[in-house]
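=== RUN LOG ===
request id: a7f3
mode: sequence -> structure
chains: 1
length: 485
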Amino acid sequence: MKKQISILLITALLLIAAGCQATPETSAVTSKNDGALEAAIEASAAPETETAESEDQEETPVSYTDSFTNSDGTITYTIDLQDISLSSAAAPVIQVTPHTITAEEAEQTAELLFGDAELYEYSAERSKTELEEVILELKQFISDWDTLVEYYGGDEATAAMVQADYEERIARYEEQYASASDTVEKQPCQWTFYPKSHYVDAGWSLTDADGEDTSEQILATVETGDLAYIYSVTNRDADDYRIHSIYAYVNDLLVSTTEKYSAQKLTDEDVTDALEAAENILAQLPFGDYIVDSYIASEFTDPDTGLTMNTISVTACPVYEGVQVTRQTQLASIKSDDAYASNYYYEDIQMQFSGGRLIYFEYYSPMDVVSVVNENVETLSFEEAVAALTAQLKLNILTEEDIGELPASAEYTISEVELGLVRTRIKNNETDFYLLPAYTFRGTYTLYDADGSVIMSSEDFSGGAETILVVNAVDGSIIDTTLGY
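=== RESULT ===
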C-alpha cells in the first residue's frame, strides 16, 4: 500500500492533466489489430514462475536510467528508475464482463455502510415548511447582484446563469408549495430498481441522446448518527455505454459543512481507524476481492466558515486470481465514438472519512469473471518493456489538445513503474474485457511556451507521479488507458 501526502484534487483536473500528455503520431510497437495479442495470450510462462499466493514470492529490484528526445526534439524524456521492485508472481489473463448490480447486493451494501439504520425511498416531495426554507434560501442567495457577482469571482456571465437557474427553481418550488402537504410521510426503501426518471424532481430532464432514459436506479435516504445520507445504485445496460455504480454521500441540502467534516486535527490513530474501517467494508462487499491502494490524510479550510476541516480519503483496487489491478486515471468519457473504446468506467472504489465517520462511498463497475484464459501467460521482461516504452516515446509529438495552445517544448521524467493487471477491451467483443499484465510507467511533466515559460506542470494537479505510458506485457502494444484499450 502506498501512502500519499498530496491533497485530493477534483477528477476534472486529473483528466485534463492526462489529456496534456504527448500524443503518439504512429505506433512503434505491436499493432492492436493483427491478432498478435490473441496469439501471445496462448503462450504460457515457464512453470517455475511463482504463483501470486506463494508465501515465498520474491520481488526482484531493477534499475534503469536513460535520456533522449522525440523525433523533432521538442520533448525531452528522462527515465530514472531506481531499485524498482517488480513481482515475480504468476501473470494471469482473465476474461471479465460487466456485472449488473442486483437489488439484494444493493441492500447488502447498504447494511454494510449504514448498519441497522432504516432506508427510505427518495422523494422530491417536500412539506410546506421545507419548501418555504428552500425558497427563502434561494432568494437570499440571488437577492444582491453585486454580491452574487463577487461570489463567482467577478464572472457576470456565470452569475447571470446561476441567477436564471435559481429563478426557475424558485418558480417551480412556489408552484409545488400551492399543493404541498404540511407533512410528508416517508416510505421504506422498496429495494426495487425503477427508471431513473422515477426519482427526478419535476422540471428536470434526465434523458439519453435519443430522448429515452434507459438507466435504472434505487435511490434512498437514510439518517445515522447526526448525518443524513443519499444512497444511490444505478444500472445502465445499453449498447452504447454501460454504468453500474453505488454511491453513498452526505446530503448537503440537509447537513452543513461543519456537521459533515470534523475540525479536529488528525492523529495517527484517526488514520489507523479509517483504514481499518475501509478494510472492513472491502472485506464484506458482495462483489469480489479488493485491497487498499492508497490513502490521503488532508486538511482544508472551509471558505464560508474559515474553519479547518480534516478528511482521510481511501482508494481501493480489485484483486483477481491473487493479482492486483493497477490503478489508472478514470476514463475521461464513456461516450466515445472510437470503435474499440471501453465506454465502461474502470472498476474503482473510493471512500472518505471524517470525524470517525464514513461520509462518502463510491463504487464503479463491478465485474464477473467469464474465464481464466491463461493462468500464467508469458510476459515481456522489464528490459523489453522499457524498450517498447522508449520506442513509443520517441515517436510522440506535442499537441494543443485540452490546453488551448501548442507547447513549444516539454520535459518528462519517468520515475515509477508497476507491473499488474490492466483492463483492455477485447477485439470484436461488444461486452467483455481482458484483465492482463501490463507495465504502467509513471512520472512528472512540464510544458513550456516559446519563451520558456511554464504552461502547465503535473505539479499543478496531483503533485505526484502520473501515468505516462502503459505497455501491454503480453504483446508489447501500448494500452491507451484514456480509452481503455
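=== NOTES ===
Residues 120 and 189 are 4 Å apart (CA to CA).
The chain has nine helices and 21 strands.
=== END ===
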